[in-house]
Amino acid sequence: MKKLKCISFDENLDIIEVESTFTRGLPNLSIVGLANTAIKESIERIKATLLSCDFVFPAKKITVNLSPSGIPKKGSHFDLAIAVLILLQNEELDDFFVVGELGLDGNIKSTNELFSLLLFLSAKVKHARVVVPKNIALKASMIPNLEIYGLENLNEAIEFFKEKNYEKFKFLQNHPLFSNPLKINDEIFIPNNQFDLDFKDVKGQEKAKKACMIAALGMHNILFEGSPGSGKSMCAKRLVYIMPPQSLSEVLMQNAYLSLNSKECEFAKTRAFRHPHHTSTRASIFGGGAKNAKIGEVALANGGVLFFDEFPHFNKQIIESLREPLEDYKIHISRVNSKTTYETKFSFVAAQNPCPCANLFSKNLSCICTDNEIKKYKNHISSAVMDRIDLYVAMDEISKDDKTNITSKEMSEKILQAFIFGKKRGQKEFNGKLKDEDLQNFCPLEKDAKDTLDLAISRYNLSLRSVNKVLKVSRSLADLQEKEIINKSHILEALSFRIRG
After folding, report:
1. Nearest partner of 310 among 401, 236, 398, 399, judged by Cα
2. Where does 187-424 sit in CATH, by number?
3. Which portions of this protein are annotated as coiled-coil regions (predicted)?
4. Which pLDDT score, from 0 to 100, does residue 336 have?
5. What pLDDT score was predicted for residue 333?
6. CB-based contacts of 170, cutoff 8 Å, min separation 6
7. Where does 217-319 show beta strands of DSSP type E?
8. Topology of domain 2-174, per CATH?
9. 3-state DSSP of 241-254
């Protein structure tokens, strides 16, 4: 029995062993192991391809097994591995991942999902040796963690595996993005030094800028409320440029998700920024479809920012559906033909007006809304969703005396120092995404800080989730000052960013 490795395309990216055996029996080629229609159809395609290469089928029964057999498999990229196992049944095969679709003339072709598979594989397996179609080999060789070998047709596949002349088919091309990485605790990060949008364009709004630094460092959720033109959207769109550098796995995962959205993958220094319109459908934001589970905006924002402008104007069902990705950092999509889970660790940023006419906070313009209209406008967002917001900022009204006091580069440098400080204590997750059971380890409090928090709990009737949010924000505030222990001032400032009822 011979084996090669392939990849199953699902939420777990299962490693599939393709096995073949020749046994006595009526001549026949069969594939077992929960293969879908595309794989079953490959039987006739592989037969025709092998005959075109002058291969003589033996008078034996050929059985191909896709192991583990309990996992459903789909995709035509299993063709090449199956064909190689049949062609070279009597040869000793080395350990390779083999992916590619076969044409009837023996040429090896790429598929739409192949680059996504390679990106997911690079994030899961270190230094995997992968045989791919030659037409994508050069681009695939830019992916870290993978050794890429490109083959054009079955004849080259025979030469590759039989003569083991691997170097002849190896592709080497390093992406410039990975040439000067930043190392923190032996982990590789990709530094960002581009600021296409700069906070120097935002005049005044000192509290909002401080909140942006906290949100960027800890990947906290933040809500801006203020009059039109006060700078809500400007702050939100500049947030990704000051966030901590992406790890290598985050870069790969971001591109893998983009490729699932049928987008051309270009490795980028900046984190993802997704900005769906308030008229977007639920399926486009959370993913879905009639039969197959398509990726949505909440998954595409993973590792970056998801920005909802005009927050109360989004459909009520969409707003309430945010609870799962904001709490569990995952989104589960179930359809007839597929069940998929995507990660949703992002900074949720929302912006809204204070009232329907938007003049409630204005000192010069009169608000024409009734109390009932304002209440109805605010109640469109439930308290359960609001409880998942870490930071609330009431934007100041603009003034002719407002000035710029800090740039994105300066903010980014401070955040990077605080990020390194947090990594050195062994913390893996962002402060805003810490699990509740980790708070005791990473959020030690001084006695005064604990007393202040206890007083706030009783006075403001804080829920357990709200208390944890205060601790997480306090952790980010302490990191910005490079303080290991959270003190009273950190708790007080974190409480100042809580939403008042």
Report:
1. 236
2. 3.40.50.300
3. none
4. 64
5. 83
6. 147, 148, 149
7. 222-225, 246-247, 273-274, 305-308
8. Ribosomal Protein S5; domain 2 (3.30.230)
9. HCCCCEEHHHHHHH
